[in-house]
Amino acid sequence: MAKDYKMEVIFKELVSSTQTKLIKGLEIGQFAAPCMLIASRQEAGFGSRGSAWQSDEGNFFASFALSSQALPDDLPLSAISIYFAYLFATLLREKGSKLFVKWPNDLYIDGKKIGGVLSTKKGEIIVCGIGLNLEFAPHYAGVLDIKCEAKELGRAFAKYLEILPKWKEILSKFKVEFQKSKKFSVHVDLEPVSLENAVLNDDGSISIDGKKVFLAR
Ligand code: BTN
After folding, report:
1. Which residues of 120-144 are buried (b: 16+ CB within 10 A; e: fewer)?
2. Cα–Cα distance, 180 to 58 (Å, whole number)
3. What digits encode the pLDDT tens for the residues 171-215?
4. Cα of 10 to ligand 1 centre, how many Å?
5. Ligand 1 mean position, distance from CA 55 (Å)
6. Per-residue model confidence as pLDDT tens digits over 32-80
7. This model's pTM is above 0.85
8. Whole-number Cα distances in Å, 6 to 33, 157, 161
9. How far is the CA of 128 from the centre of ligand 1 (A)?
10. Which atom of ligand 1 lies nearest, measured to the CA of 116?
11. Which residues contact ligand 1 via a Cβ below 6 A?
12. Dihedral angle at the C-alpha atoms of 198, 203, 204, 209, nearest 10 degrees?
């Protein structure tokens, strides 16, 4: 739990996608981990299943890069999106929000999705993207229940990420929060599967009727 790095925060007005731009920028040496890229707008934002992510000005769009070595040594790769979603949700709850993390990578308020997290590993670097509806949402989704300004939120989260708790600590809290996921379904092989009887495993996967389910996020 040592604070041994400082995360650089970069702001851009318009990018294709913070995730794509950050990955490319790391490859060509334009950016170096640890850093966070925040954009006001994205022309080609995407979600974890490849769908388009509505990205007009006013909402929060950010991606950050961390060396695997900076991560807690007990964090399984399969739990990275949950881990960072939970940290982000914790920061927002400290600001008064009632959001929760719905397994495996969604941010919810009541029955509505208000944001999501995706992550990928590029060599030794983890790149994690977060979208959060601050001002507007598609008709089927919701917006955050407190007022936040995107840049200020990004700066605060970058600071938050400088001290990473152990996965064990987050897992024990998320096991409680996981109960809220149980009234939802997830798509496994394109089929909706209820989470009612799902059991959360220590690696962030779930088991349903004894069968382990991982979702690539
Ligand atoms: C999900 O499907 O729930 C995850 C959505 C992640 C969207 C964010 S917005 C910032 C970053 N850039 C992208 O293109 N996607 C992620």
Report:
1. beeeebbbbbbbbbbeebeeebbbb
2. 28
3. 999 999 999 999 999 888 788 989 999 999 999 999 998 889 877
4. 17
5. 9
6. 999 999 999 999 999 988 899 999 999 999 999 999 999 999 999 999 9
7. yes
8. 10, 12, 9
9. 9
10. 3
11. 17-19, 42, 45-48, 53, 61-63, 105-106, 116-118, 129-131
12. -10
DSSP 8-state class, residue 185: E
Q: Find all residues with CB under 8 Å of 67, minimum gap 6, and list them.
A: 33, 34, 124, 125, 126
Cβ neighbour number for residue 111 with a 10 Å cutoff: 9
Alpha carbons 170 and 90: distance in angstroms, whole number: 10
Measured distance CA(92)–CA(115) in Å, rounded: 12
* Closest C-alpha to ligand 1, atom 11: 129
